[in-house]
Write a structure and sequence with these properties.
The chain has helices at about 1-20, 40-45, 50, 80-85, 100-105, 115-130, 140-160, 165-180, 190-210, 210-215, 230-250, 260-270, 280-310, 315-330, 345-355, 385-390, 435-450, and strands at about 60-65, 70-75, 160-165, 365, 370, 375, 380-385, 450-455, 480-485. Helix 7 packs parallel to helix 17, helix 8 packs antiparallel against helix 13 (about 280-310) and helix 13 packs across helix 15. By secondary structure, the chain is α+β, with helices and mostly antiparallel strands. Strand 5 and strand 6 (about 375) form a beta hairpin. It binds protoporphyrin IX containing FE (HEM) and 2-acetamido-2-deoxy-beta-D-glucopyranose (NAG) (2 copies).
Length: about 500
Amino acid sequence: MLGFLTLVWICIFLIFLLIRIPRLKNFPPGPQPFPIFGNLLHLNNVNPLNDLKRFAECYGKIYTVYWGTRPVVILNSFEVIKEALVTKAVDFAGRPQECMFSHMSDFKGILMADYGPGWKEHRRFALMTLRNFGLGRQTMEERILGEISHIVAYLEKNAGGAVNPQTLFHNAASNVISLVLFGSRYEYSDEFLTRYVQLITENSKIISGPWNVVYEAFPILRNLPLPFKKAFDNVKEIKEMTLKLINEHKKTSVPGEPRDFIDCYLDELDKKENETSTFSEAELIMQIMDLHFAGTDTTSNTLLAAFLYLMNYPDVQARCQQEIDEVLEGKDQPSFEDRHNIPYTQAVIHEVQRVANTVPSALHSTTKDTELMGYNIPKGTLVIPNFTSVLNEEGQWKFPHEFNPANFLNDEGQFEKPEAFMPFSAGPRVCLGEGLARMELFLIIVTLLRRFQFVWPEDAGEPDYTPVFGVTQTPKPYRMHIRFREPGK
Ligand code: HEM
Ligand SMILES: *[C@@H]1O[C@H](CO)[C@@H](O)[C@H](O)[C@H]1NC(C)=O
Ligand SMILES: *[C@@H]1O[C@H](CO)[C@@H](O)[C@H](O)[C@H]1NC(C)=O
């Protein structure tokens, strides 16, 4: 009798196990997943945070949801994200390889490359190259200022009227990275540039959209002719376009005298001819795609946010202009060094990045079995740091919920950057283009504020600061009214 009862219990237990998605031992808490779908059915209408408040106290800081049968650990707050990305740096420096983004780049490139020698060597190479070692005679600053003269020309032509600056900023950011990668800028109407940007924008939309979730959650559907197939076709076209550029470079490049990133890479390939290395032409194509993708929308969407706020906080704009006029008096152009002398404007640019929250999260993966906040996280777990939770976190900022440059100023009016400022992330995977992006934002914003006054059009109604969701967030489309100003007046 006793034996029979035990058997029944074991059967019930086994059935239960089969139906439930097994929870890993000492794994971060989260809502109970349904078979097959996980928590996907929860996600659309319910904010996970609201749903989960009743659980353990630190539930909002670290929790698990299931995309299909795959667990995703979400990190909220400075404390948790710092422990993962900075303190346990290498443990959390991987990238998930079982996802659409990685498949699109053939496991190559740098953005989605997993932690390992290929990523490391290419990251070091790209950082060196971007830091002006071997990018020819022109400095990065000169390249950016050159592009700015085209922005200024466009705004001068339109002064007195109102424009939507979206395409302008997008093309400018794309051109700066093109100058670095290809050694040339493109007219804003150029066919190559327009097509390249169009393909990347389309893919960015697909990755941010619902079909990406379907792709991730249901591997069986991946080979069907569903909309994500378009993304793969686009990548094919991007590859062909890039290959053509590389071949043109091969004809004209002089070894040892690189003009741009492609030349530097070709030199490196020559040097490594007889060694086994992670450098290859197929890699170069993906490196170019990744750098262009990572450097364009991010920078231009941050610029869009900057001018949205500057127009709607006219006293902040005027105070920047006064500071800029005083410090740059008699100079033709600003230089990045000037940032140390204009603390208020520096604070405004940082505050823009904080509220713009252009890249709200990132995809990481654990490189080994590890621990976080006392929970066990096995190797290969998908981990998503939620940067929004840090950039708005109470306790980290003087004014977490409003646009206020005082968040970056101390009592003496000097610029001061709180540790929780991480729009570029932190740790080994920190944005590779941070230096370039900061230089671009600074030089563009300072130059434009010095030359023009930007006014929110009277007929535009109340500004809406809520961003459009995506891999990168962007303000809703708006127009800005452009007026000339005379420096010092
Ligand atoms: C305001 C502009 C930008 C913002 C807010 C931004 C933000 C970020 C963030 C949050 C990440 C993810 C880090 C992580 O996984 O934890 C990232 C990665 C990256 N960014 Fe940026 N970025 C910007 C501009 C740029 C530019 C101009 C470039 C071009 C050189 C660039 C290249 C990259 C690359 C290559 C990575 C991947 C690094 C890796 O996986 O090792 N970014 N960026
Ligand atoms: C690679 O090997 C070939 C043949 O052995 C030789 O001619 C060439 O100089 C070597 N290249 C480098 C960069 O060492
Ligand atoms: C990210 O953080 C923000 C701000 O704390 C929060 O509203 C949002 O729900 C969080 N997202 C996730 C997926 O936890």
